[in-house]
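Methods — Computational structure assignment.
A single polypeptide chain was analysed. Its primary sequence is given first, followed by the predicted tertiary structure written as structure tokens.
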Amino acid sequence: MPLNDRISFDEQAAQARAEACHQTLMTAETRFDAEQQIARQLGGQIDGDIAYFGFWVPELAENRVPTGDVFLEVLAPTVPLDLTVAHQDVAFERSLLPVIRLDEHCFTAVRGMIAGKRRQIGDFYALTWRDSDGTWHRILDPLAMSLPFGVMAPAELYDIDALQAGRTDTGYFENLKGGKPHKFGPPSNILQIHVPSATAGGTIASLTRQFERLASRVSHDLPLEPADQLFMGYDSVQLLPVEPTTVYETGPAFWQETDDTETGVTVSLYRPDTTNWGYDIVISGMAAVNPVLLETGRPDELVDFASVLHNFPGKPKKLVFDVVYGHSDNQGLNALNPHFFAGPNMYGQNLDYQNPAVRAILLEMQRRKANFGADGVRVDGAQDFKFWDPSAQVMVHDDDYLQSMADIVQDVAGTQYRPWFIFEDGRPWPDEDWELSSTYRSVIEKQRDDDVFQWGPLTFAHNTPFLYTFWLSKYWRIRECLSVGSNWISGTSNHDTLRRGTQVSPEMNINTGLGHSRMEILDKAYDNPAVHTLTYAALPGVPMDFLNAMARSSWGFIRNQDDKYGVKVVAEEAISLKWQVDEYSYSIPSNFRRLKELGYETRADLARFCEFLPALVEVTGYDLEDIARLLNATDPKLAGPHYTVATLKQVARAWMDDMHDYCNISHSLPGLDPVQSAYTLALRNFRAARPWLRDNYGPRDRFGYVEPLNGRTLFTSLRHGPDGEQVYSVLHMEGKPTPDIDPLLLGVPGTEGFGWHCALRSPGIGPDYLSGPIVLRDSMALVFTRKG
């Protein structure tokens, strides 16, 4: 049936929505209260056989656009769409329907629209308006729930009720139902995952299959290989942001229109294929799922992943979302109206949290996203949530907004609940003295809940555990962990610290005791038996591990959308070649194939280019024409193409795409050390069996280092459980081997006497060791227990 015959404007239903908005604005206690209620009605939503649409459009009032020039644009493909195809040209029917305007809001209601479902592509939509010159302009839906072609394209109307009805973890949520909203508390540990590099498939569906396989093996009591053990022993999974990210700055656009007429349009559709680490967002579309991560193009994949975690045999695993609302990339200016923004910052744009409508819409985006089934929410860069205080003439942290984020009540499977919250907040970052002055407790001390967490000082960026004296230099921070670390995320391996590690000059004082090559040193620094033991057996808080670090896979600042600054980004990342790629890795035919096609046949070829590029970026002030000219003038001649501005950008794109492929953990799984994998899994199980280890140190607990140092850092820790159990750890963090020492005779108060049992031995210590003299080397650790 033709689109115009199938759908119709329901004026009465649209008028009812507009009238409800009017009453809310008239009667709500504050404008923000009103906007919060109105935000629930925004976006495209299905209610029975009516599709409702609501938009916040202050730009229409500013441009004095009359209501008669504003329409809901509905687009329906004339042939079935296949969202798994890389490129297709499709004809769409178009229909324009009236809207009801109410100052800064407009609403409409439509009968007969097709809503998207797991096995059905829905109609697409946007708001459109005509200016006095007859030119048409689109307003995209920032609260869309399905964006198969990214944030810069019309949204797909999606049946969220059907999505929720199809979830298979309803029993998990129903068991939490009570008289008041359930409040999730912290898990015992977290596995942090970047979806595109976590499996060979690189999608949420592929990751779901990985956990389904693990669940099946656990259910059938089958042996676990090292690649399986990487994912085991965690009772929560935190995904790096799964929101839609930026698009290619200079194209191609994923939705390109040709042959535009009043009743139809032909669209050249590209399956989104950007590579990104997740944090380059445009705010619009934050309630949806990044289509790059969807194998089928259906947001149901995220519900499927939540379900496989919640139904995991033995004990459910919690799902934590990582959300980014502290900034927007500059591309957000093309997706949202200007009222969303409060001026530029180092990442792109600040958001106007003081605008009641913006504040309400951001919180509504968060609510809708967490309703996919998140048990927890991690807030990226909470120190960036600021507003300008005109009376004091300073930027002020918006702690009330952070509290509002933690107060949101979710509703899944008929159960109301509030997720557990983590805030990454290093204020006063980016002040120069932030590493010294940050307490990492600013949010903890201000929020009402006693289970609010922050990233701790050993987890925040700029930690370099592969440099000599790192652990002694951080000893004052470790002492803080002992007394106030119960509500900190602990551990040194995460997406940010591993990235920062690859940016450190190899000329610094590198701990060569960690390995024979830079790759070995970096890998062991962030997957270190002694550090893991410190985190899991000694320190309070909730440990977190990054999958790429645990797999000893590479990682970096991965995004291929940049055109203007892409070469500069590669210049900043070029040093990672020294840390993460050796001659053998580069020589593998499937690695760095794009760069090889451009003429960098060997690692040495690429390394020489990477020596010149950062220096030239700096000395030319990032003048690409000068950089190209100077690169062509080298003697002997550099490998690679003849350098022009265009080929420099081509090399930058190839670098990013090749590094993205190189960072997939599937490459490193065959080389995993089964002893290391088994040990880290044993540590996680050890921690899970002793939840009291999360608590701060008590009066009888002890932590210190053996003196005199004599060229090594040897930590000792003694913890006391509520049942009288003692846990005693000896950790060789760095430096020379010890002489023969008896760990139980180091004079730590409380370790006197007998009854100790050696519970954990790090790799390098044989299973026959029970107690007595031993030589401990860099990264070795022992854990003893004694019953009360």
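Note: Residues 645-662 form the longest helix (18 residues).
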